[in-house]
Amino acid sequence: MNARLRLLLACAALLPVAAAQAQEHIKPGLWEVTATTKTDNPAMEQMKARLAAMPPEQRAAMAKMIPGMAAGDAPNSFRVCITPEQAARAASPDANGKCARSNVVRSGNTTTFDMACGSMTGHGTMTRVSDDEFTSSSTSEMTHGNQTTHMQTQSTSKFVSSNCGDVKPIQTTPAK
Q1: Contact 112, 3 (CB under 8 A)
Q2: Of 109, 137, 108, 105, whose CA–CA distance to 16 is shortest?
Q3: What is the DSSP string of 15-55?
Q4: How far separated are the first and last CA of the chain, in Å rounded?
Q5: What is the phi-psi region of residue 90: left when phi exceeds 0, alpha when psi lies from -120 to 50, beta otherwise?
Q6: 57 backbone dihedrals φ, ψ, rounded to 5°
Q7: Structural domain tally of the chain?
Q8: Does residue 39 have a pLDDT over 50?
């Protein structure tokens, strides 16, 4: 898999986390994210089809290497760890120091924001359902050379535990 596809998948997987941290009052700890991402990138769609054709053991091994990558249009499920410090300062997921949020607007239990991670830009909405659950949606595009890929991501995130266990905290930079 080429580096561009890996970056695209990583960004798609982290969009729900960006949504969570755009909102105040997100609990630190272990969160389970279930996300569905649709894209107009033919290479990514071909990769999803190849993944769907793999035996279950091989598919599970790929899922460990690329968190948030499911076969076909199946939802992706993965766990992320938010530290107390990250929750307190509303940090943004990091992509080698190239990610930023802007135009963050909170109204009631909904937060909207714009984001930029390197060559990817987008807009997201996060709705806090309860202290233990939120939903998010985002649209984004990534330009590489003369090709632009569009993504749509829908997710639900649920609090699992205040103890992250063996899940490492996500890399973050302070919100801008």
Answers
A1: no
A2: 137
A3: HHHHHHHHSS-PPSEEEEEEEEEEE--HHHHHHHHHHHHS-
A4: 32
A5: left
A6: -65, -40
A7: 1
A8: yes
Q: Which two tokens stand for residue 83?
A: 């530290």
Coil, strand, or helix at residue 91?
A: coil
CA pair distance 131, 27, nearest whole angstrom: 7
CA 52 and chain centroid, separation: 21
Model's pTM, two decimal places? Answer: 0.68
* The two three-digit tokens of residue 102, written as one number: 């802007």
Nearest to 123 by CA among 143, 138, 133: 138
**Segment 106-139, tens digit of pLDDT:** 899 898 989 887 788 899 898 989 989 989 899 9
Cα–Cα distance between 176 and 159 in angstroms, integer? 25
For 133, the domain range is 3-173
Tokens encoding 31:
């969160």
CATH number, domain of 74, equals: 2.40.128
CA triplet 12, 14, 16: central angle to 5 degrees? 95
Query: Residue-wise over 89-128: b if at least 16 C-beta within 10 A, else e?
Result: ebbbbebeeebebeebeeeeeebbbbbbbebbebebbbbb
